[in-house]
Amino acid sequence: MKKMLFSLLALVALSCGDPAVEKYDPVPGGDGGGTVPVTPTPQPAEDHWAALADSCTNVLVTNFLDKSTGTFWSTPNDIEHSTTYIYWQQAHALDVLLYCAERVKESDPSRAALYLEYADKWYRNYANNYNRTYRGEGEYGGFFNDYTDDMAWICLTLIRITEVSGNAKYRDTAREVFDRYIWPRRVKVDKGTGLPWTNHAEDQNNLNACTNSPSCLVAAKLYEAYKENAYLDIAKTLYAYNIANMPDAERVEEPPLTYTQGTFGEACRHLYHITGETAYLAKAGAVLKYAFTSNRCTDSATGILRHEGTNMDQSLFKAVLIPYAVNYVLDDKADSYTAQTIKEKLLLCAKQLDKHLDRTMYPRMYCDYFWGTTFKDGTASMGAQTSGASLIEGVARLEKAR
Q1: Do residues 385 and 60 make contact, with C-beta atoms less than 8 angstroms apart?
Q2: Is the peptide bond before 40 cis (omega within 30 degrees of 0)?
Q3: What is the rounded distance in angstroms from the CA atom of residue 280 to the CA atom of residue 273?
Q4: pTM as predicted
Q5: Tens of pLDDT, residues 169-183
Q6: 3-class DSSP state for residue 272?
């Protein structure tokens, strides 16, 4: 049944621009890598992006997912044996599958259920956490890490699993991780109270945005779930710390990176819906719009999000931004001009990526680090594939909501 499922997904490869969309079928009897063209047929935008999302997500699953553990390799089938310390990155790769499961739960319930099975395996294998120091404490102990931001990203994905599956155990674990290991690390400095990057003595004054933005969002989501005022107080405290340390009104940090712009924007959006205070939503729009329009975050030649680097962390940054940008666009309380600007930029990025995917390589149709170029050779990256799949899943979600 699973083999049949993935064979069906291989029907998917499309290109933009013309009402007639290219569509490919797998070569009979092949390994899925070869393709033969069939007659182009007109296809509505929603179907186009949904089909391409199916393809890009399936490339991630086929090449980078260890199906026995539910965790992800850094290179296809871990050919470079470089996955040992891939921990925070696991959160964003699984997020792609969760957004896909949410999108197809009615049209393809078996695939949605399969992805949730992988999510449970991911949970039972502690998201590939290499730190085993606290495993004896219980399920939450398996997610302990010296890096505070790593635990915050993992908590956000644990909460997402609950949001998609309805099973509270994942969010309950996130709550334990936050209460026991994250918030107790807080320190008070001149510009407020925040969280250090690690629990190491040398980092007690290193309270960076990549730690305090996701932790602010975790606290806001825990308040929404459990209605305990302590979590709202924490979210507001971390919001204040982030604001006090921003280099200007739109940049979350220097240099501006897409993932912190996106995460702080999402934290602000949640705080708006909790409190009704419009300043939070205005800040969400400002930092998200900056990510898509500033020449610090975009490529001058194409206008799309820039190449942020080839290491595993850098290649994942856009995967963090995209879902939160889509959430803002779909929020009926968002500023309409800002939302439309971000939507147009998302579509511009998606069309560039669509144009630069090599269909002849499916299911090794890898996304490149920069969406304005085609992956040619070398070793494909889980980070780059996750960012590309996140983009197409996000645009498919936008089109479905129209």
Answers
A1: yes
A2: no
A3: 9
A4: 0.91
A5: 999 999 999 999 999
A6: helix
